[in-house]
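Run log, item B.
One chain of 145 residues. Sequence copied directly from the ordering sheet:
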Amino acid sequence: MSFASNNQEYTSIIYQLDKVKKTFRQYKRQGLQQSVKENLFPELIRIEKNNGYNTFSGFNNLLRLRDTSNWSVCTKLGLKPTGISSFYYTDVFVGNKRSLCIVWYPKDCQLTELSIFPKFYPCEKSELAERIKELAQSIAHKKGK
């Protein structure tokens, strides 16, 4: 699904909880979302607790994209808090282009949602945190949160 928020076009991909283990929650892409852009994202993702046995510091949660056949070598991204409860952000590469990804991850819910903003960058570093927070607030408002 494509939307616009604060004059930023974005695509939302909804994932349904599939499996829960001690160190991760696995999600499966929900429904028949057939947009070409959405199919660049895998059918399965995991949100993992950062156990510290990696190069990621300062992140409590990691997003892992199932883009190869072995989870241990799949793309792993640190999730940074936006300042709004249950919303995190990271950068993803879509077609070799850096895009902003805002992740709605309420731990007590069966769903998680990835919102991809392909035209977010370039963004001045001084405005980055505020612009990300505004986008997250806009998405939260649409969800009635």
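Observations after the first pass:
- The mean pLDDT is 85.
- The first strand starts at residue 2 and ends at 5.
Flagged for discussion on Thursday.
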